[in-house]
């Protein structure tokens, strides 16, 4: 039986890094007993241009048969039009909701050869090794929202950070399970001094933690957590938080390793996994062939591990990336001074050469 993989390159640098990821995926499966069938579809800005919607029916239909989804990135200035228009990002949110992928896993680990690219001092940067588990299908990005104006013509807008007990519990279970496989420490991040949704979140953490007596639990408020991530990143193992806080903290954590272009993610939940680099469509470098494909390539490693269950191939992809870096390959975002700068395609070749 073959696994169906839906490939959604998207916009900007999305197609460049996705091409790299697909090449590595095909290479990694040579000689494996696992077979895949890939089909490519539109999402985001390109889907808006073609179908008038960011997640068209043809793409949705393909998702019904999918075992995993590999995504590039969506969005760009072309589609940044005023209020009342559909945006490419709406396609991504709808995709996550449709797939029911409520847990976004973002491993953040320093590569020893890239420490000079980190904004942190070497001795702090080298100890960065954490996993962010971000709730992905609830909170302010999906809650009730409205724009309007009152009787005096004064405009208003609101978004609601809504969470049900079930939405909180299921992502916490994913995070506790992950902590068990790591250093057995879980930091839950909220704003319980202000928000009711955070107070409920904290109560459920207490409840779920009773089933994981071997996992050490701590609570941090999101503002001080943002500070601790740069001052004491080594104090984190698994960090679990709601959608909006996780969006912000994971970009912050990402740069600790040197470049946002390095980091992969897996979004898991009700069966199908969604795999994507954490960066966006990077319009400032789109079309130049210089995007760092490693976040997308490392997302393939997560796809091999979580959806295709070929752990050895996943590990080999990760090792090939580490070796390419160790041998000096640097895309522009990673380069410092006199480094040997490679293009997206050259970086991919270097990774394949070390597989
Ligand atoms: P971004 O992540 O696209 O770019 C931020 C900065 O990082 C830019 O300077 C960019 O050149 C650089 N960068 C990002 N990925 C890189 C890579 N692989 N290699 C080298 N440099 C890289 O975030 P930004 O600029 O805030 O958003 C651009 C567009 O992407 C917006 O339309 C935004 O809504 C969308 N976006 C989409 C996401 C997704 O599809 N998952 C996630 C974040 C943003
Ligand atoms: Mg983000």
TrEMBL record:
**What family is it from?**
Belongs to the isocitrate and isopropylmalate dehydrogenases family. LeuB type 1 subfamily.
> Which note does the record give on the cofactor?
Binds 1 Mg(2+) or Mn(2+) ion per subunit.
Q: Which compartments is it annotated to reside in?
A: Cytoplasm
Pathway assigned to this chain's UniProt record: Amino-acid biosynthesis; L-leucine biosynthesis; L-leucine from 3-methyl-2-oxobutanoate: step 3/4
Q: Where does substrate bind?
A: 96, 106, 134, 223
What are its E.C. numbers?
1.1.1.85
What GO terms fall under cellular component here?
cytosol
Gene for this chain: leuB
Protein name in UniProt:
3-isopropylmalate dehydrogenase
